[in-house]
UniProtKB/TrEMBL annotation:
Single GO cellular component term: mitochondrion
Name of encoding gene: aatA
Co-factor(s): pyridoxal 5'-phosphate
EC number: 2.6.1.1
Transmembrane segments: none
Source organism (scientific name): Vanrija pseudolonga
Similarity field: Belongs to the class-I pyridoxal-phosphate-dependent aminotransferase family.
Protein name per its UniProtKB record: Aspartate aminotransferase
Length: 400
């Protein structure tokens, strides 16, 4: 008898499991709208030209493959956090931002939540409803209790700001509250700048701890600076935020696993203590982060011409998605699809939260070979000129 005879099969991942089903489907019309990975106009994965240029530069430099320090490549840590916080950000200038390179956004979330579990008095974290499914699992593994605050209003397919404020005000003083910095996943609905300001005020009054997840900087508006508004505003207002930053989407570096975890501290001395504790979490988890992705980001952000090119490419990706929203909306209306579809246009970022019901999602897969998560979320970038009509027609049929 095998040692593992009693291991039970676990459920497939709610998002990555969809790709498996998609791959197994042999119909040529099949469409995968499950995973949030950008696709070009032909439905193919996209390597940003600025990244290819950085690859060439690095190749010529014939660098070694030695280990990085536990907290990663110093030039990367600096440039990456300047992109998020702004070059003039006080915590950076005053050398009181504790930064570590992370295994993309997920790795930052995991180490960040472990840090909270170990060093923050409160052991729970408030997550928006709905949120990226992995947030719950990460919180649990890190030893935190996941609590909820209301965020989305299915009736308006928009933000339920009143309910959000009510829940945040009702949370015990000093609660840790996770905020999607921009392009909320899965809803594509963000607070306005005025609403962020109000939230900052409530956080102050309640002494809440803002735990930011920024996986889509640049994808909301096409401009990374604009998308960093919430993060920068909270820091300006004196909040000691924690930030998880990912370069998976905005640089297309999904598989390179590159991001940062950063915490605003009060002084260089405090920063050094926080750094030392982060090292104690990273060392037994994966020792030190991978070098290649960090070198790519560092190369692009340090060379003004390459950075300029990259900013153009981010805008192009965001604009293509915005154009697709317009097309999809027009098509659905043209087909007289029952329901109100304005949210397809008004939502932002990589996803649209369509409002399709789980049974309709199942029908799309079974009858039409179209794959998306059962909450009705579609990754807009999976659509293109070749499949958008077929998609709209299929949606129209399952809704009618
Ligand atoms: N946070 C959110 C809200 C996300 O949508 C994602 C990616 N789907 C991540 C974090 C982490 O992604 P990664 O680990 O690839 O950076």
């Amino acid at each position: 008898v095998s040692v593992w005879a009693n291991v039970k099969a676990g459920p497939p991942d709610a998002i990555l499991g969809i790709t498996e089903k998609f791959k197994a489907d042999t119909d040529p019309k099949k469409i995968n709208l499950g995973v949030g990975a950008y696709r070009d106009g032909n439905g193919k994965p996209y390597v940003l030209p600025s990244v290819s240029k950085a690859e060439e530069i690095l190749f010529k430099e014939k660098l070694d493959k030695e280990y990085l320090p536990i907290t990663g490549l110093a030039s990367f840590d600096k440039l990456a956090t300047e992109l998020a916080y702004g070059e003039d950000s006080a915590p950076i200038k005053e050398n009181r931002l504790a930064v570590t390179q992370s295994l993309s956004g997920t790795g930052a979330l995991r180490i960040g939540m472990e840090f909270i579990a170990e060093h923050y008095p409160n052991k729970s974290i408030y997550l928006p409803t709905p949120t990226w499914g992995n947030h719950n699992a990460i919180a649990k593994r890190a030893g935190l209790t996941a609590e909820k605050y209301r965020y989305f209003d299915p009736a308006t397919v928009g933000l339920n700001f009143e309910a959000l404020k009510e829940d945040i005000k009702a949370a015990p003083e000093g609660s840790v509250i996770l905020l999607h910095a921009c392009a909320h996943n899965p809803t594509g609905v963000d607070p306005t700048q005025e609403q962020w300001k109000e939230l900052s005020q409530i956080f102050k009054e309640k002494k809440h701890f803002p735990f930011f997840d920024m996986a889509y900087q640049g994808f909301a508006s096409g401009d990374p600076v604009r998308d960093a508004f919430a993060v920068r505003y909270f820091v300006e207002q004196g909040h000691q935020i924690l930030l998880c930053q990912s370069f998976a989407k905005n640089l297309g570096l999904y598989g390179e696993r590159v991001g940062t975890l950063s915490l605003v501290t009060a002084s260089p001395e405090e920063k050094a203590r926080v750094d030392s504790q982060i090292k104690l979490l990273v060392r037994p988890a994966y020792s030190n982060p991978p070098v290649h992705g960090a070198r790519l980001v560092s190369t692009i952000l340090s060379k003004p011409e390459l950075k300029e090119q990259w900013l153009g490419e981010v805008k192009e990706m965001a604009d293509r998605i915005i154009a697709l929203r317009e097309k999809l909306y027009n098509k659905l209306v043209e087909l007289k699809t029952p329901g109100e579809w304005g949210h397809v246009k008004s939502q932002i970022g990589m996803f649209s939260f369509t409002g399709l019901k789980p049974e309709q999602v199942d029908q799309l897969a079974e009858k039409y070979h179209i794959y998306l998560t059962r909450d009705g979320r579609i990754s807009m970038a999976g659509l293109n000129d070749n499949n958008i009509e077929y998609f709209a027609e299929s949606v129209s049929k399952v809704v009618k």
